[in-house]
Amino acid sequence: MVLPMLPARLKSARQNANLTQERLGVLAGIEEETARSRVSQYEGGIHRPTFEMMCSFAKVLNVPECYFYIVDDRFAERILELYLEYKIPSSEY
User: Fold this and answer.
1) Is the C-alpha dihedral spanning 1, 74, 26, 88 positive or negative?
2) With contact defined as beta carbons under 8 Å apart, do 22 and 36 qualify?
3) In 3D, which of 60, 16, 53 has the Cα closest to residue 34?
4) How remote is the C-alpha of 63 from its chain's centroid?
5) Which residues contact 89 (CB under 8 A, 6 or more apart)?
6) Whether 23 contacts 59, CB under 8 Å
7) Which pTM was predicted?
8) Nearest by Cα to 50 from 40, 65, 71
9) DSSP letters along 45-67, please?
10) Which pLDDT tens digit goes with each residue over 69-85?
11) SS3 content of the chain, % helix, strand, coil (to 5)
C-alpha cells in the first residue's frame, strides 16, 4: 500500500518557505519549463509525486519527509517541531 501525499501540506510548507511553485519545483530538480505546473498539480491533488520527489521537496522546504504523509494535522505539526528542534545543520554532516 502506498500512502497518499497530503497536497495541502505541500502547499502550506511551500508558502511558509516563501517560495513560488516554480521556484520550489526548480530547487527540487524539476525542469524550469514545467516546474510551476507540476507543483500546482501536486498541490491540487491532480497528480501524485513520487516518494523521491517528495524527499526533494522536503529537503528544499526543511521539513521531514514524513510530514507530507501524516494524516493527523496536530501530530504532523508536532513532528515538524521535533524535526526543527533536533535537526543537525547540514554543515555538520
Assistant:
1) negative
2) yes
3) 53
4) 7
5) none
6) no
7) 0.87
8) 65
9) TSS---HHHHHHHHHHHT--GGG
10) 999 999 999 999 999 99
11) 65, 0, 35
